[in-house]
Amino acid sequence: MPGRYVGYKLVAGTSNPRLCQAIAEYLRQPLCRWTTKKFTDGEIFVQSEENLRGADVFVIQPTGPPVNDNLMELLIIIDALKRASAERITAVVPYYGYARQEKKDAAREPITARLVADMIEVAGAHRLVTIDLHAGAIQGFFSIPSDHLTALSMVADYFRSCDLTESIVVAPDTGRAKAAEKLANLLDLPMAVLHKHRPRHQVAEVTHIAGELKGLRPIIFEDIVSTGGTLVAGIDALLANGAQPDIRIAVTHPLLTGNALERLTRPEVSELVVTDTVPLREGANIEKIKVLSVAPLLAEAIRRIHHGESVSALFEPKPSMY
Ligand code: R5P
């Protein structure tokens, strides 16, 4: 397989430079020399400073906030790679923006996650690598191959090193129940599920709880924290139902928009564990935040894809694969 290509190249978009650098270091492969400019009207310009003809190229660009700029930059990079005669283009999109618009919940709504998939394909990507999609079914929006990785193993490994007495894994809504169940099984803990209702966009309420929380220390396992509304509603419901004021939260994609961080900085929250799929916003490096890096996971996926090796071992929640 690698013989088909003139080596492989790593192209870094501008949305998460630290993650790109960490992946490059893990792979001992320099990032492609690359120019990105933003014109005064907001248009983005990119150009490779290296020959890419025949190369197996991996473009790393999570599409977190500002989602539209980062998405557009990803599409423009893919177009540039295609026109530079790259042999294969893999879009490495650790956080897939618009994933929460993956179905019509009401009349006359768009399915923007599908539109984004179409745009990535039309731009010229041959495959997608992503982590903890809001809905796994988004893989089906692509006709190109996709590798859907998960941060579950690293989250489980982290909590195994913590005090888990009287702990319980909590899904903040029914959509996360499966993921929370997997974490609970890995940690050998009980679980509970919160039932969330959204009376309107970006407002969350917990209507009821499945599971017993009295006297237990919750570990909430979430895919995305944006406004923090879901977590705040969850924390209030857990406390009202007798949970200990010692709540740990693990989130794969810490978008932390607006005043989300301030909303979560409360004495009952003892720790916020996140990954670096998106950069933490300026000033968010507070004591209670623990950042787990997905760089080794992504780097290993890139290495295996380039060498035509199986990536599925990385999907399984087994530690020490990378
Ligand atoms: C939605 O169902 C997701 O899993 C998250 O719960 C949600 O997107 C978090 O958003 P926010 O922090 O704005 O409540």
What does this structure look like?
The chain is of the alpha/beta class and 322 residues long. It folds into 2 domains: 8-150 and 295-315, Rossmann fold; 152-292, Rossmann fold, CATH 3.40.50. It contains 8 helices and 14 strands. The protein has helices spanning 17-27, 67-83, 112-123, 152-160, 177-187, 229-240, 260-264, 295-306; strands at residues 8-12, 34-38, 44-48, 56-60, 88-93, 127-131, 146-149, 167-171, 191-197, 205-210, 217-225, 247-254, 269-275, 289-292. The radius of gyration is 20 Å and the shape is globular. The two termini are 22 Å apart. The mean pLDDT is 94. The structure holds ribose-5-phosphate.
Distinct helical segment count: 8
The secondary-structure class comes to: alpha/beta
Strand order of the largest sheet: 10-9-8-11-12-13-14
Report the CATH C-level class of the largest domain: Alpha Beta
Q: In this structure, how is the largest beta sheet organized? A: 7 strands, mixed
Q: Any idea what the radius of gyration is?
A: 20 Å
Mean pLDDT: 94
How far is it from the N-terminal to the C-terminal residue, by CA?
22 Å
Small molecules held by this entry: ribose-5-phosphate
Tell how many strands the DSSP assignment holds.
Answer: 14
